[in-house]
Design a protein that fits this description.
This protein is an alpha+beta fold and 530 residues long. It contains 17 helices and 20 strands. Among the domains are: 114 residues, Alpha-Beta Complex (Dipeptide-binding Protein, domain 1), CATH 3.90.76.10; 212 residues, Dipeptide-binding Protein, Domain 3 (Dipeptide-binding Protein, domain 3, Roll). The chain has a seven-stranded mixed sheet. A five-stranded mixed sheet has the order 16-15-17-13-18. Strands 4-5-7-6 form a four-stranded antiparallel sheet, covered by helices on one side. Helix 2 packs across helix 8, helix 10 packs antiparallel against helix 12 and helix 16 runs antiparallel to helix 17. The longest helix has 19 residues.
């Protein structure tokens, strides 16, 4: 454990390039013995009750989070969907690495007019409890989606009606044209059995979901494991895996130990700090893919602070060396945000905009022009333990800001406390975390419209007008042009320090085949075998 800590410390930018906050002596001290022992005990405990990872038809997945719900309409958390996506299927899905919508339970679709989408549904499909999948089931499920709180920012005042226009024909009628309806369905068009869902209610369904997928839930021991058994009646034929076991192992080191010992087959959310160690193990393979989770230090310009001055916000972007963070902290397994909030793999990305250059001299000049030649004091609130290296990233950003004279009070908090602070409006002038949204520009920009809980910087009315215009523009070229205008606005008037998007890192036993990382961080086991 101590050697891993030293390894990440070696990756941090040197003081010659940016004064990273002072780190205490890394030599083993008595005060460090207890945490090390606890980590080893966690790993030993994880190994002591491990599942049958060695069996060829059983896949054991080391999961970093224990879901709070398996209701597909109650959450947009990718870590939770990684479990229930094997049980509950969607009408359409995103491609693994592109913003392209693919058929699934809906085999085709067409626009009858600018506000009516017609979908043809797959025939011969049943839910695992025997209920038929048909247009009535799809209609019921979409009505749940369009009422679901986690999707309300995108579905409010959108849908007029959902109709079954035949046994396997579905029509969605909109209140206005919507270019993002299909991407929305690719994110949340989960289908559940209507009769069963009504009988048990949402609360019970969240604990025992039923769908059309290749697996059924057979056991959920909270905080320990979730067991899925093969669905013998799956419409795509029996899955080659008889069973999938999700073992809840929150500690990064414990997951790595379990993987190397052969007690699990796949380690989700594998820590980049162990990348080299995993890569040289001949019994393992490591797969990386670009991710969509965008880390940003968001400005609250509604508070009376120097952040209200656009020059200050640009200076803070110039102060942070994103390329160095990607190279030296994330080992190259991340992307620098390109000077705005859309990545190259997202629809609407502007390739003409580039990341802010690392230019601390220009940053100090802008601060002086804004009236702060000696800097100022601010506070940075950031998550700890929710995402890989989120604490280190907060410390590094604070160090870069200190280098141009901005005195930063760091407030690292656990994720639950972070959400509480957000809900009570107490995040302060700057808060930093990583947000993951579907790969269409509408889902990114609409987070920052008037009334959104994510909006802390107010743009002129043109901002919201352009977002609304793009949402109803059905011509993709004209729509892209609108999003490029929004990209320029967010570059010239930044609502945060645009940091990085870490890659997704999957570590697995060499015997695992067919696992393809998805940029939305959802585990997709449909093609996996051992």
């Amino acid at each position: 454990m101590a050697s891993e800590t030293c390894w990440i410390q070696d990756l941090l930018p040197s003081r010659s390039t940016a004064p990273i906050p002072r780190q205490e002596d890394r030599r083993m001290k008595p005060s460090r013995i207890l945490p090390l022992v606890l980590t080893l005990l966690i790993a030993a405990t994880a190994l002591s009750w491990a599942g049958p990872a060695g069996q060829g038809d059983v896949l054991v997945v080391g999961h970093h989070l224990d879901p709070t719900t398996l209701d597909p309409f109650a959450t947009t958390t990718a870590a939770f969907q990684s479990v229930f996506a094997q049980i509950v299927e969607q009408l359409v899905i995103f491609d693994a690495d592109r913003a392209v919508v693919r058929p699934w339970l809906a085999t085709s679709w067409r626009w009858l007019d600018p506000t009516t989408l017609e979908m043809q549904l797959r025939r011969g499909v049943s839910f695992s409890n025997g209920e038929p999948f048909d247009a009535a089931a799809a209609r019921y499920s979409l009505e749940l989606l369009f009422r679901a709180a986690p999707y309300s920012a995108w579905t409010q005042d959108l849908v007029r009606s959902v109709e079954a226009a035949g046994s396997h024909t579905l029509r969605v009628r909109l209140l206005r044209p919507s270019a993002f309806l299909l991407p929305l369905l690719a994110r949340g068009s989960f289908v559940v059995p209507p009769r069963h869902h009504q009988e048990v209610g949402p609360a019970r369904f969240a604990q025992q979901p039923i769908g059309t997928g290749p697996f059924v839930l057979s056991e959920w021991s909270k905080g320990a494991r979730i067991v899925l058994d093969r669905n013998p009646r799956y419409w795509g034929g029996p899955h080659p895996l008889r069973q999938v076991i999700f073992r809840v192992i929150p500690d990064d080191s414990a997951r790595v130990v379990a993987l190397q010992a052969g007690e699990i087959d796949v380690a989700l959310n594998a820590p980049i700090t162990h990348f080299n160690r995993l890569k040289i193990d001949r019994n393992l393979k490591v797969i990386t893919a670009p991710g969509l989770r965008k880390f940003t230090s968001f400005f609250n310009t509604r508070l009376d602070t120097p952040l209200r001055d656009r020059r200050v916000r640009i200076a803070m972007n110039l102060a942070v060396d994103g390329q160095s963070i990607v190279r030296r902290v994330f080992g190259g397994q991340a992307q620098v945000l390109p000077g705005h909030w859309l990545l190259p793999q997202e629809f609407g990305h502007d390739p003409n905009l580039k990341p802010f250059p690392f230019d601390p001299a220009r940053a100090r000049q802008l601060l002086a022009e804004a009236g702060f030649p000696n800097g100022f004091e601010t506070q940075l609130t950031y998550t700890v333990g929710r995402y890989p290296l989120d604490k280190e990233l907060g410390e590094i950003v604070a160090g870069y800001l200190e280098a141009i004279g901005i005195r930063v009070r760091q407030r690292p908090v656990e994720y639950g406390e972070f959400l509480r602070l957000r809900s009570t409006g107490q995040l302060g002038p700057i808060h930093q975390w990583g947000l993951l949204v579907p790969p269409d520009a509408h889902f990114s920009y609409s987070l920052f419209t008037k009334g959104s809980i994510y909006r802390f910087h107010d743009y002129p009315d043109e901002w919201d007008r352009l977002i609304d215009q793009a949402a109803s523009e059905l011509d993709s070229r004209r729509r892209e042009a609108i999003y490029r205008r929004l990209a320029v606005l967010s570059h010239e008037d930044p609502f945060g320090i645009y940091l990085i998007a870490p890659g997704n890192l999957y570590a697995m036993r060499a015997t695992v085949r067919g696992l393809t990382p998805r940029f939305d961080e959802v585990l997709w086991l449909y093609d996996v075998a051992k």
